[in-house]
Design a protein that fits this description.
By secondary structure, this protein is an all-alpha fold. It is about 70% helix and about 0% strand. It is built from five helices and no strands.
Amino acid sequence: MPQPSPGASGDSSSGVSSALQNFKPYVPATESPAEATFRALILGSVLGIIFGAASVYLGLRVGLTTSASIPIAVMSITILKKLGKSTILENNIVQTVGSAGESIAAAVVFTVPALIFLGYALSASLTLLIALTGGILGVLMMIPLRRYLM
């Protein structure tokens, strides 16, 4: 006769609690490695600009864009390893900054031509204002949704 697995009798909290007790994070809470460093922010911005330009070209030429999050993460690991003393959290910041910059560039590609077709005269300052507004609204909307999406 097969034995029921732990938690099969309706008490699933024992299986979850034992899994949580055995969990060891990659970066323990006792350590505080470098995270938002100057070089991480600069490298993320540079990679965001490069991949943002590629995303704009691809969006205008083909009509679609791809996420550059994984290529930025791979390049971040490679470049920071060459510079020395990189941490996983620093790589995460580079990937996040670069991906956010590339995503905003892709969003501008799809909104600005629509506004031009509607007859609005656009300038560089108005395009910058549209991009900043979209970025700020995206961040503000993620604050209440963060707990549900994670």
